[in-house]
Design a protein that fits this description.
Elements (H helix, E strand, L loop, with lengths): L3 E4 L6 H11 L4 E4 L17 H11 L5 E3 L11 H21 L3 E4 L2 E2 L5 H17 L7 E5 L7 E2 L3 H9 L7 E6 H6 L8 H11 L5 E6 L1 E2 L10 E2 L7 H9 L9 E3 L15 H9 L2 H5 L1 H16 L4 H14 L1 H6 L4 H11 L9 H12 L3 H5 L1
Parallel strand pairs: 1-2, 1-12, 2-3, 3-4, 4-6, 6-8, 8-9, 9-12
Antiparallel strand pairs: 5-7, 10-11
Helix pairs in contact: 1-2, 3-4, 4-5, 9-15, 11-15, 14-15
This protein binds zinc ion (ZN).
Zinc ion binds next to loops.
């Protein structure tokens, strides 16, 4: 069975809250930060509702889940205080991850700031050696994430990851988290040459190291070095490329985790598209949303077809304008999904009683193309 889910909240009742949220999206896996991603304040293990959460996971058929380390720790820092804090915090985080019963913790390798990449790689390896040595009593692996290459971050190429792994003694506890947005932004061609890219990864790092895949579309063209996630189908990768990744034989069995942005006209109405993204990628949207869902998607094809709006052209064209035409962006800063939502909401293409979220879910399905209707 495909393991697919999203990032969920670990606040309030910890693992129980996380599981309950994941179930509402139809997830078979999920990812948590054990506290706020931008700080190192953490609740004691006893207040994370681990037993209750595990029972709820069992009941929902959720097996493997993933922890993400906070993104502020930097093992690449030349400043001893920053480096020491990262080592110490990651060790505690690994013990917490072990207590929750999770095998992999995702880590952004680090950034070299005012030094250089060679320094950063050596420093990160030094830190990983300390972290792994100090947590030998656990079975937790550190999953180094493929990065987009913004700023001075390390991990933007497969070679950088391989160099880190080579320098770490206990590297049987190092795995990799592939992020589709980051790889695309770093310049890898996941649309035109997915097989070639994965073969390249296999040669340099080894596909057997891949433990997790982050599934995100990108707001930027390939090689932009940016790291801005878009909902599945609403970015430069597109639905087809993402579907091919999720169903690729070389990645079979891994948890696929969405970290796509929430969509909505106001902060209050913003909703994640995870439920639709998961159902579409898994292929059970009819069971999840009912037959009328497909009638609505068919109506969207008809509606946009009449106006000669092609989903791929529209999405890429809008990002292009937002990126390259400051005046046009100022006049109309709406991102592709909001523009599409407005077109639909102003028309009578869909029944008037659908919520903003429901309309956006149908637009997400429209990104999957007419093939979706044939298969349904
Ligand atoms: Zn990450």
């Amino acid at each position: 069975m495909l393991k697919i889910g999203s990032h969920v909240s670990f606040s309030d009742k910890g693992l129980l809250t996380a599981t309950e949220e994941a179930v509402t999206y139809g997830s078979s896996t999920f990812m948590i930060y054990t506290g706020a991603p931008q700080n190192t304040r953490r609740k004691p293990i006893e207040s994370l509702y681990i037993e209750e959460g595990k029972l709820a996971m069992d009941k929902a058929g959720i097996g493997e889940i993933v922890v993400h380390a906070p993104y502020i720790v930097n093992l690449g820092s030349y400043k001893d205080s920053t480096f020491d804090l990262a080592v110490q915090f990651l060790q505690e985080e690994i013990r917490r991850t072990d207590a929750i019963g999770v095998r992999n913790i995702v880590l952004h390798p680090g950034a070299y700031t005012d030094k250089d990449a060679e320094y950063g790689i050596a420093r990160i390896a030094e830190g990983l050696n300390l972290v792994l040595e100090g947590t030998k009593e656990t079975k937790v692996n550190i999953a180094l994430e493929t990065m987009a290459g913004k700023g001075t971050e390390i991990g933007r190429s497969f070679e950088e990851l391989a160099q880190i792994i080579d320098k770490v003694g206990l590297n049987d506890r190092l795995t990799v988290c592939m992020d589709t947005c980051h790889m695309h932004d770093a310049g890898y061609d996941l649309i035109g040459d997915l097989d070639g890219t994965l073969e390249q990864f296999d040669r340099i790092v080894g596909l057997n190291r891949v433990a997790i895949v982050h599934v995100n579309d990108s707001k930027n063209p390939r090689g932009a070095g940016k790291d801005r996630h878009a909902p599945v189908g609403a970015g430069w990768l597109g639905y087809d490329a993402i579907r091919s990744i999720v169903h690729h034989d070389g990645l079979a069995g891994r948890p696929f985790i969405l970290e796509t942005p929430w969509i909505g006209k106001t902060d209050k109405t913003q909703r994640p598209m995870y439920e639709a993204e998961i159902a579409l990628l898994r292929g059970d949207a009819a069971e999840r949303f009912g037959e009328s869902f497909f009638d609505h998607v068919e109506r969207l094809h008809h509606f946009f077809g009449k106006q000669e709006v092609d989903h791929r052209e529209f999405v890429l064209g809008t990002w292009d304008v937002l990126k390259n035409d400051a005046k046009a962006k100022k006049a109309d800063p709406r991102e592709p999904m909001e523009r599409l939502y407005d077109l639909v909401a102003e028309s009578d293409a869909l029944p008037g009683d659908l919520s903003e979220e429901q309309i956006n879910q149908r637009i997400t399905a429209w990104f999957a193309g007419k093939q979706l209707l044939v298969n349904a």
